[in-house]
Amino acid sequence: MARREAVLFAEVQALRRWRTIVLLAFPPAALLFIALRQIVWHKPWGHPPTSNGGLIFLTVLLLAVYFRLITVKLVTELRARELTAGMRGLWKGRTIPLEQIRSAEAVTYDATADFGGYGIRSGRRGAAYIARGNQAVELVLASGHKILIGSQRAAELARKINEQRKAVQP
Length: 170
What we know:
Elements: E1 7-14, H1 18-39, H2 52-70, E2 73-79, E3 82-88, E4 94-97, E5 101-108, H3 111-115, E6 119-123, E7 126-130, E8 135-141, E9 146-150, H4 154-168
Parallel strand pairs: 7-9
Antiparallel strand pairs: 1-2, 2-3, 3-4, 5-8, 6-7, 8-9
């Protein structure tokens, strides 16, 4: 089994914003209320009424999805030859070999205006992995594509990426 290189920079950012947590809680809370109303207070829901088993299944499923969504984190790791960024808890991260990075620069962005919100996005500035704040590292790849990686320590990350790029170039 191949050994992984040491992590030179690591940052974990939670997507937790109280507004998001509250808004995402409405659907499972409503379904929980409907289930309690039918099962505990014997007031059927729907015509014909939904089965108790179906309501319990949907409620548990929606609660599981809710807790999965509120625990998603943006994880950024820089190793000697690659940079990885991804939303842990949703899908696999993206690994970018340092040889493919033409430049890395700390920038300021507006998540809503530039990308339409937080998460894994695509917008006029390219692809983005953002969890919070307005600081990021903008990567320009050899292909010309741009990737924005949100960071609360953007200047440090950009500096370390550029140092490692110089170290791996022939």
